[in-house]
UniProtKB/TrEMBL annotation:
TIR domain boundaries: 7-170
Stated name of the protein: Toll/interleukin-1 receptor homology (TIR) domain
Keywords: NAD, Receptor
PROSITE patterns with a match to the protein in the record: TIR (PS50104)
A GO biological-process term: signal transduction
Entry's Gene Ontology molecular function annotations: ADP binding
InterPro entries for the chain: Disease_R_plants (IPR044974), NB-ARC (IPR002182), TIR_dom (IPR000157)
Domain of life of the native organism: Eukaryota
Family matches, as Pfam families: NB-ARC, TIR
């Protein structure tokens, strides 16, 4: 999620008032407010299809999450569909996380725009501009591709699940970002989840995260750990493996693992039948993996070991075939977005020029580039 725009709200609720305003939305809003989650709920839904107001657009843009409750009459409302287009625009820019809730509808009908959704769009096509209807279809198709929840017999359980999931994600953002938000985190998580296969109960699964730089890889590793550690009986995040291993016997890593594992009095025997998550960040030598192998080789079925490194060859040497390659530029953007957040375009421009200058100097011994740098920045 980009931090280019400050968040005024934690959650933006998108819903069809006719279906859910006085029932599900009322309960969800009350629970979110009770948990001190700042929530925007529009009580002025317009049924004539007019454009959403600048204030409503701003509320979407200034929210961390958009909970879209897609009920049976949601797609019948031009107002709701216009709102969804705007939400998905921001989702595409990674400035908001969308959480779909399929309330009393089949997700397949939404995804393929069949059933009642098809009937509703037939009416739109007879009344509305072709381009507008096409934009609604595109937004709906993108929305339906996102992972979401379905309603059941007990709304209170779904309300609790949504509220606690949002609360957990907010805690993760606060824990790992230090004022920075991860750019494109949802795309990274989707790609990683495919490799991690958390629903598997097979033997220990090993996955590598590789990139040339350090900040992006480590930030992603921490996010992954915080996001999924509660799904495991025991879990451990070993940070800065390269640093804590320097000048020490390999047994030191085993000691660090025992010190950091989140459970009481850990030992190999007790971990043997447990589902364990181990994230080892910044590994730079095969012997470090060998030192930890005695620990993770005894983990129970469904366990996951994630190794992050700058050395892709190291992963191959150890036989780790599932490797996720992180786009370093995405994470360099994260580190510098604070300049834009403060509207300090000049500082961000100087930083970019400085990076280009350093690159030219190191690669081409271009001493005159320093003069060019100061010449340009003087005019910024």
């Amino acid at each position: 999620m980009s931090c280019a725009t400050a968040t005024k709200y934690d959650v933006f609720l998108s819903f069809r008032g006719l279906d859910t305003r006085s029932t599900f939305i009322s309960f969800l809003y009350k629970e979110l407010v009770r948990m001190n989650i700042r929530t925007f709920k529009d009580d002025e839904e317009l049924e004539n299809g007019q454009r959403i107001s600048p204030e409503l657009k701003r509320a979407i843009e200034e929210s961390r999450f958009a909970v879209v409750v897609f009920s049976k009459n949601y797609a019948a409302s031009p107002w709701c569909l216009n709102e969804l287009v705007k939400i998905m625009d921001f989702e595409n820019k990674d400035s908001i996380t969308v959480m779909p809730i399929f309330y009393g509808v089949e997700p397949g009908h939404v995804r393929w725009q069949t059933g009642v959704v098809a009937e509703q769009f037939k009416k739109h096509e007879s009344r509305e501009d072709h381009e507008k209807v096409f934009s609604w279809r595109q937004a709906l198709a993108a929305f339906a591709q996102l992972s979401g929840d379905c309603s059941g017999d007990d709304d209170s359980k779904l309300v609790d699940k949504i509220a606690h999931e949002i609360s957990k994600k907010m805690t993760i953002f606060a824990t790992i970002s230090n004022g920075r938000n991860l750019v494109g985190i949802d795309r990274h998580m989707k790609a990683l989840n495919r490799k991690l296969d958390l629903n598997s109960n097979k033997d220990v699964r090993m996955v590598g995260i590789w990139t040339r730089g350090g900040d992006g890889r480590s930030a992603l590793a921490k996010y992954v750990y915080q996001d999924m550690c509660q799904q495991f009986e025991s879990h451990c995040f070993l940070g800065n493996v390269k640093t804590i291993s320097q000048g020490r016997h390999s047994a030191h890593l085993h000691h660090e693992f025992l010190q950091n594992i989140q459970r009481e009095n850990p030992n190999k025997q007790s971990l043997k039948n447990q589902k364990v998550l181990l994230v080892a960040d910044d590994v730079d030598k095969v012997k470090q993996l060998e030192a930890l192998a005695g620990d993770f080789s005894c983990f129970g079925p469904g366990s996951v070991v994630i190794i992050t490194t700058q050395d892709k060859h190291l992963l191959g040497s150890y036989g780790i075939k599932d490797v996720y390659e992180v786009d370093i530029l995405t994470f360099q953007k994260v580190c510098r977005l604070l300049a834009f957040k403060k509207r300090d375009i000049s500082a961000a421009f100087r930083w970019a020029l400085c990076r280009a200058t350093n690159f030219a100097t190191e690669c081409f011994c271009c001493q005159s580039s320093t003069f060019a740098y100061w010449k340009v920045t003087d005019s910024v």
